[in-house]
Amino acid sequence: MVPYPVPAMSHPVSPVTAAEVASVRRPVDQASLLPPRVFHDPEVFTYEQAAWFGRSWLCVGREEDAADPGQYLVASVAGEGVIVVRGRDATLRAFYNVCRHRGSLLVTEPAGRQVRFQCPYHAWTYELDGRLLRAKHTDALIDFAVEEQSLLPISVRVWEGFIFVTLDPHGGSLEEHLSDLPGHVGRFAMGDLRRARRIEYEVGANWKVIAENYSECYHCPGVHPQLNRLTPYDQGRNLESHGPWAGGWMELATDADTMSTDGATHGRPPLPGLSADDERRIYYFVLWPNLLLSLHPDYVMTHQVWPLDAERSRVVCEWLFHPETMARPDFDPSDAISFWDLTNRQDWRVCELQQQGTRSRAYVPGRYALMEDMVHAFDLMVADRYAEDGVVSRFGPRHDKWRAAARDRQTGKATSMASPRTRTG
User: pLDDT per residue over 348-391, tens digit each?
Assistant: First the structure.
C-alpha cells in the first residue's frame, strides 16, 4: 500500500448493448462482423478509453528504454500522462505525469535521462522514486507534509523485456492478463532482444480496424503480393487460446527463410532455442487490447496500436534482434525493415478504405469468411466487453480452412472440424 492517495476508478456504462453484438458472439460460420458504429461513434471511443485502456495492462515500451538510473520514457494512456523511470536503486517505477502543486505536466520530453524531476512551472522537485524533495515557500504551511506530496504511482511490470502499466490500482496481475500466452512464446526469449529500428505511423482508421487487419491474411494475395509469395495466405494454423489473446502461424515457402525483401536472412542466424519447425514459421499474436507480436526465425517485430480518436490511430512498430547478431560487422536489418514498412503502408491504405466505407448508411455488418476466424477471435473479445454480461465467448480455431485441409477433402481424407467451446459466465 502507498501512503498517499491513488485516483479512484469509476466504472462507465457500455454504450453498446449485448443485443447489438449478439450476432458476433456466434461460431464464425454463423457470425456477423461488428456493428459499424463502434468504429466511428465518439461515445464508444470514450467508453473504450475509460473501461478498456484505462483498466487493462498496456505495453508502453521496452525495458531498454529505461535501463539505467534516471532514464525514463513518457506515455499517454487513456488520456493520462505516464512517466516510467529507473530509480537509483535500479527499481522500475511509474507515476502520473502531474506535479502535485498546480497540476502542471512534470516531464515534457518523450524520453531522456534526469537526475531528478523538476516541475517547469514552480520548480517543485521530485526524487526518481517519486518523493518530493523541494517545494519553496511551503515550510510555514499548516497541515502540509512533504512526505504526503509524492508523485502518484502507477502499477508497472516487465514481461519479456516489454514494460506494461495499468491505471487500475485494483486490477488483476500482469500474469493473469497474459494467461497462457507465455507458454506459446517463451522459447523466443524476447527479453534478450534489442531494438534495431522504430517507425511511427498515423493511420486514419479506428484501432480495432487495424487489429482486425493484422489478424487475417485473407487479403494478402491482392494487397500484399510480396508477403504472399513468402508465406502463402492459406498455409498455417491458429492456436487455441485460454486468455485475452489470439494467435497462430504461417508457413514459409520452400525458397524463403524469413520475411524480408527477398526472403533471405542475409547471414542472420536463427534466434537461439528455436525448433526446426519454428525456423519455418512466422507466428502472429494479438494481446488485448493493442499489442501485436510477429515472431520470425531471426527477429521479432511488434506493433503498439494507440487510439487517437474514433477515426485515427498511432501505430508504433519496432524490430528486435539478438544483440550478438546486432554486434556483427555485417549486420544490416534494412531488408526486414523495408519489407514490413511496405507491408504496413499497404495495410494502412486498406484500413483507411474500410474506415471510410463503414461510415456509409448503406453498410450493414457483413459475414466472416472462414479465413477470418482469428479476426472473429479478436472481435469476440471486443463484443464480450461491450456486452458486460460476464460471458466469455471462445470457439476453437477452424483448422479446416487451410490448404492442407482442402487437399484432404479432395482426396477423401477426414478433416478435423473445430467444435465450439463452451461460453462461460
Answer: 999 999 999 999 999 999 999 999 999 999 999 999 999 999 99
Structural domain for 301, as ranges: 19-53+179-411
- β-strand pairing of 111-113 with 117-118: unpaired
Under the banding of pLDDT at 50, 70 and 90, the label for residue 2 is very low
DSSP result, 233-275: TT-EEEPP-SSSEEEEEEEPPTT-SSSSSSS--TTPPPPTT--
CA angle 228, 194, 294 (to 5 degrees): 25
d(CA 245, CA 425): 18
> Which cell is 230 given?
513468402
Q: Both 159 and 198 in a single domain? A: no
Measured distance CA(401)–CA(404) in Å, rounded: 8
How large is the average pLDDT for residues 105-116?
A: 98
Q: Which residue has the cell 525448433?
A: 275
The continuous run of DSSP H or E covering 412 comes out as: none
Q: How remote is the C-alpha of 388 from its chain's centroid?
A: 22
Phi, psi of 309 (to 5 degrees): -160, -170
Grid cell for residue 176: 493473469
State the helix-helix crossing angle for 207-214 and 334-357, rounded to 10 degrees: 120
pLDDT above 50 (res 327): yes
pLDDT at 1: 33
How many whole angstroms separate alpha carbon 246 and alpha carbon 238?
Answer: 8
Check which CATH number belongs to the domain holding 394 and give it. Answer: 3.90.380.10
Domains in the chain, number: 2
